[in-house]
Amino acid sequence: ICARLEGIPLALELAAAxxxxxxxxxLARRLKSRLDTLVPERHGGPVAERLDTLVPERHDTLVPERHxxxxxxxxxxxxxxxRTLRTxxxxxxxxxxxxxxxxxxxxxxxxxPFDLQAAREVCAGGPLTRxxxxxxxxxxxxxxxxxxHGRGWSMLDTLAEYGGQWLDRLGTxxxxxxxxxxxxxxxxxxxLADEEWLGPRQIVWFRWAREAYGEVSAALTYLTEHRPDxxxxxxxxxxxxxxxxxxxxxMRARLETALKNPSATGPHRxxxxxxxxxxxxxxxxxxxxxxVSTRGAETAGRERDRExxxxxxxxxxxxxxxxxxxxx
Length: 328
Hints:
By secondary structure, this protein is mainly alpha-helical. The protein has 17 helices and 6 strands. It has helices at about 10-20, 25-30, 35, 85-95, 100-105, 115-125, 130-140, 155-170, 170-195, 200-210, 215-225, 230-235, 240-245, 250-260, 265-280, 285-300, 305-320; strands at about 40, 45, 75, 80, 145-150, 150-155. The protein has a two-stranded antiparallel ribbon. The radius of gyration is 25 Å and the shape is elongated. The N and C termini lie far apart (about 55 Å).
């Protein structure tokens, strides 16, 4: 429970109060949403200040509605706004500049830590310039919405959950544009990593692939749903990263899904075919690996795709090596 609540003092205090009435395993099960579970009881029933009382009108406001009722209504000597995790975070949210509230919401697109370049590439747009993003990161760090993570930043899951709910209220257009920028940015990095994999920066890119796994996976999911041709290209370029990072099951599933796109032809499809051959070989499915590698070689030959021919030969050679027939 303490780990789930990330050591936030108010959250721990509220959880301790609920533990008097709930078994610990039940309390832990209910902590799917930190913001809604830890609500104090009052007059025998739960009191929850709902997110729908905080209405973002547009990007340049993002200001909660003011309530006619006094904000400092007392219960047990503490204001209601300080008695739930949601309202406590919301109080801090009100103190942020409008641009910083929007940045807070947009930063929730990241599944883990992020650096300055990623934040500027993904979060800038509309009313937020790149300079706004840079300045906003410093302000969000100063008010403890963000924390330092190496040379970049990270956000506690509780604060990301709150920001994500605000992002939801900004509408599907905002969501779509943000997800598209996120996918495009990480797709570019995958291509660059693939180009430099067989070189002195291989270890750098290996570490990046391991740390950015959640971001790359999310980007590939978006591309599969919205840009299947590009998803095929990205999936094929991830073959060595997946293999070296031990993501063999995802490697196979992603490639099989990407290859279901009937309109995809050319080098992207050829590369995905021999990459799938590598996946099958590493799974011990040698007959399937040989069949897919052969298809890739034939396709590459017809299209005069030299890189595809070499890739298919690599997949076929790997299969031969693993089956004890290196001479073949």
